[in-house]
Write a structure and sequence with these properties.
Elements (H helix, E strand, L loop, with lengths): L7 E3 L2 E3 L13 E6 L2 E6 L4 H26 L1
Antiparallel strand pairs: 1-2, 3-4
Length: 73
């Protein structure tokens, strides 16, 4: 994972951060909401990719929860 910067909404358009370089001009993206957070992913987002995103998200949440529980001990 790589942090690219902050995107902003400007006159109804999302302006991507300077660290973002679209692979192809005019490339479209799918937007997925995960617990209030937005994830941009390349189109098309088929069921297999969506399932993989969900799987990885759930695994990350479990790992983070274990870390927090370990710190609380």
């Amino acid at each position: 994972m790589k942090y690219l910067g902050t995107a902003r909404c400007d006159n109804g358009h999302v302006v991507m951060p300077d660290g973002f370089a679209a692979p192809t001009p005019g490339q479209t993206y799918e937007v997925v909401e995960i617990d209030g957070d937005l994830l941009l992913t390349l189109s098309p987002l088929d069921r297999a990719r969506q399932a993989r995103i969900d799987e990885l998200t759930q695994q990350t949440i479990r790992d983070h929860r274990k870390t927090l529980e370990g710190l609380a001990k």
